[in-house]
Write a structure and sequence with these properties.
two-stranded parallel sheet, single chain, about 200 residues, mainly alpha
Length: about 200
């Protein structure tokens, strides 16, 4: 599941191999930073954060139950499909955050130039299904939620389209962001925070 990009994940080192397939890093040790920024007193914290979140169905189910109860204050008796969607989104976000942190750390150590794209509109579509596909976690997520008696499609239908704009410029901005991500360019997209749509 690799695409042509401006860097080779095999040559870039362990921290960037996630780009070619996130699921290959299931519960692997995370790379240690080269700099000695953190004192030895942080060693316990580093030990607690040394592995990636596991991506097997049972671990996804446990993370889902944890977020449902502890992040959203629901119990197994009183949650809706909207709550289930939010909890699944938090499970997915945990994995995305690992990738974001590793990517930003790699860019920082390489001292790369960054591009910034400002647009008033972004028609990006729904996030959840796109993120699961991009992380190469379709099968583990599908198996995990089927084991809990839920279909991923039910969760996907709970997500509303964040149409931030109303036309071709918003779609163009989203295409630019997708292209930059596909090429692994160190770019950020900035927009306007709308209060009233």
């Amino acid at each position: 599941m690799t695409t042509a990009s401006v860097w080779d994940p095999n040559a870039a080192g362990m921290e960037m191999k996630r780009k070619s397939s996130f699921s290959l890093l299931d519960n692997m040790p995370r790379p240690m930073p080269e700099s000695d920024e953190h004192p030895a007193t942080m060693e316990k914290l580093w030990k607690l954060m040394e592995t990636y979140e596991p991506n097997d169905p049972e671990s996804i189910q446990k993370a889902f139950a944890r977020h449902l109860e502890y992040s959203l204050a629901c119990t197994r008796f009183n949650f809706t499909m909207a709550d289930a969607y939010r909890a699944a989104g938090l499970v997915l976000r945990d994995r995305l955050m690992e990738s974001l942190n590793d990517t930003n750390d790699w860019y920082r150590t390489q001292d790369v130039k960054r591009g910034y794209y400002l647009s008033a509109e972004f028609l990006i579509g729904r996030h959840m299904q796109n993120a699961i596909v991009n992380l190469d976690l379709e099968k583990p997520f599908k198996d995990a939620f089927m084991g809990l008696g839920m279909q991923l499609e039910e969760l996907f239908s709970e997500e509303s389209d964040p149409a931030l704009g109303n036309g071709g410029l918003g779609r163009l901005a989203a295409c630019f962001l997708d292209s930059m991500a596909t090429l692994s360019l160190p770019c950020w997209g900035y927009g306007i925070r709308y209060s009233y749509g």
